[in-house]
DUF4440 domain-containing protein (Azospirillum humicireducens), 184 residues
Amino acid sequence: MSTASRRCARRRGIAEAGGRPGSPPRLAVSPQGISIERWRSTDRGRALKGQRMAVTEQARRVIEAAVLKQEARRCAALVADDIAMLDELMADDLVHVHTTGIVHGKEQLLEHASRFLRFYDVRRGDLLVRVPAETVVIVTGPMTNLVGRRDTDEKIEVNSFVTQVWALENGAWRAVSFHAVKQA
């Protein structure tokens, strides 16, 4: 594992597996309370053979609930104009694609949200949550924002379809990717 990969793994709260080249990363602390020793004894052999490790149904439910809670916090923070909360919910390497096609990193997005746009309402429709691994979640579904520019009283409703990727970083779920497409 390269130095950059180790740094990225540490930032995301992942430990190196056995220190051997090619060993799969694993959670330093499992969100389900499964010990690393138990993980090693049950799944390590499959992972080393390159097989995809399935997330148990119980783990999927726990992870899904945690990520949906974070998404609800994100929506509430936008409406409350709570930039500090938004900062906490986003990964430092966030890529955010707006419905207009503008692409922002975390710092640019926080600046945009605090100085340019005002969110009056953020509503999510039915969400599809996929948990391909214990440290990554993909959320897709509709979103309706009632927004306005801070320098006017005009409000517009924006309907979009969103794909989000959340990753477990240092024990907390953070948004690493957000891509919104405008819907008619």
In short: The chain has a mean pLDDT of 80. The first strand starts at residue 14 and ends at 15.
